[in-house]
Amino acid sequence: MSVSFTAREVASRNLETQVYHVSEDAQSDVLVAEPLDVTEAGRTATAETDGFSYYQVEFTYEKKQYVLPGGGTVRLSKVLSAVGLYGAVTGVEVSNPGLFAARRDESGKWVVSALKPFSSEEWMKVTISSVTYEIAVTDDQQTVDVDYVNAEGEGQDFRPCTIVTAGDTTWNTGWYAVADTTTIDSRVTVSGNVNLILCDGKTLTATKGITVSEGNRLTVWAQSTGDNMGTLYAGTTTGEGSTCEEKYAGIGGDENNVAGGKIMVSGGNVTATGDTGGAGIGGGCGGEGGKITVSGGTVTATGG
User: Could you report the per-residue pLDDT of 56-68, keeping only the tens digit for each?
Assistant: First the structure.
């Protein structure tokens, strides 16, 4: 993934631009800095990285809060101290260990890790001296600038995007990016004019498909035109068979006689499968197909 910023100093011949990925070592609480490869163009510097923290997880108890960067790990004692809780911990329970987890490290100390971005309200229960405290856990998701290409493979300006997470079932007008391989088990609804960037090497699986009904629009973009293009599965998990509801389109109409909206694919590997009369891309069973344009990428659309 590319991360960029613009500054007057980048263009100076007397200065060297250096970008680092900084993470915290859970054992020692020491910050570790890893240098990234950087390219310069005028005042803009661009760094390549496998990932970065575009979200942060907040642990809140009685108006006191500790913020953990996405993908980070920290000792539980540090979290508890920040929210005003002290004492020997005898047990920890979390509401969803797939999103954030608590465990003992090799030294026997409790640590907490932020694993994935999320949009739901979660909790962590910590038992200290036979008393259980419930700490609210939320995710303050950030927008990040993401690059993409048009159908001809020409680089476009970076766009501030909301990162797609497993809990995002409604996409409102704006730009979204698939920055991590993600599965959404409920049907996604597009409301307004939505642009979706499939980041290189990442896959979004919308198991129940994506609703783009008449009056709404979805445009799918990629970051490149090569073998590493991002992938979208809609209404299927592998391209073999439908996982949509009966009569729904993979992308488009969501039930019997519901027409599809405007759907454009400008890049990426897109596979969409409808069920029982629903189009792969277009209308639900008996519904009009809407306006479908494929100008780039690879598209496989299979009706039910």
Answer: 899 999 989 999 9
